[in-house]
Amino acid sequence: MSIATAVDSYLRHVAVERGLAANTVAAYRRDLGLYSAWLAADSAQSPPRPISDLRAVTRQHISAFVQHLGLRAESPLTAASIARILSTVRGFHRFLLDEGLVEADAAHDTKPPKLALRLPKAISIEQVTALLAATDGDDVQRLRDKALLELLYATGARVSEVVNLNVDDVLMEVFDSVRLTGKGDKQRIVPVGSFARTAVSDYLVRARPMLSARGRSTPALFLGLRGQRVSRQNAWLIIRAAAERAGLTVPVSPHTLRHSFATHLLAGGADVRVVQELLGHSSVATTQIYTLVTADTLRDMYTLSHPRAR
């Protein structure tokens, strides 16, 4: 079996049998495209290439590929990007072994580069309040922007999850919640507070019908000025414009509201596993990084406030 055929088989496997989202499958395709191109390139250095038979791939090849990603002249990748690509390659080689296409998993023992600890960038409650206040207004655009930002902060949703919402996913009348579809098409029900409920209700009654009349019929919750579904890029521009009107001097993105949601919940005493469920994290370890942010905040407050802290 050729490398290209093996890659196609793996992508069908993750798409059909594992049910991964289309964006994830596309990322796997890009990663394995880089890997396949590297295997096919001529090289006299050890370990030798090109390789056309995956059974000839060794641990040394995988290690050399990882090193290549960090040193390539055209655009060396960050440790996080290299770790992601290696994860894809390791999954691919596990699949080859499970399918009996190779005798050994060449990528099993290859370790990703160590990642620097990067704490999420959250903004304060006062800054969030100013950002949301910057969307006040009665015209259709402001009503939509208010509902969008309030919902992002109220649910901690990823921007892709919010822009992909349909009207039927809004469960306000019965459950005061929304149905979000996260990574791997996993759904979760997330409660929505009173401010976001009011903003979404106002938008649905006073703004969405007017926006919907400007375009083709669509079930999308959030619509652009031409009646089409709001894109991730549109959402980013909406938030940036609100941040400028609010006079915020710190960078603000859709993910900033997700980080702030988690940080503010934990600072208010929420259990980390509850926050994990709300964020849609598959592992609590991913959520626990927000506890470090909260600890840093407490440490700063202690240093500023305690008479013998300095």
From TrEMBL:
SUPFAM superfamilies (alphabetical): DNA breaking-rejoining enzymes, lambda integrase-like, N-terminal domain
Protein name: Tyrosine recombinase XerD
Compartments in which it is found: Cytoplasm
InterPro entries, alphabetized: CB, DNA_brk_join_enz, Integrase-like_cat_sf, Integrase_catalytic, Integrase_recombinase_N, Integrase_SAM-like_N, Recomb_XerD, Tyrosine_recombinase_XerC/XerD
Main location: cytoplasm
PANTHER family in UniProt: PHAGE INTEGRASE-RELATED, TYROSINE RECOMBINASE XERC
Gene3D superfamilies, alphabetized: 1.10.150.130, Intergrase catalytic core (1.10.443.10)
UniProt organism field: Cryobacterium ruanii
Active site, renumbered: 158, 183, 255, 258, 281, 290 (o-(3'-phospho-dna)-tyrosine intermediate)
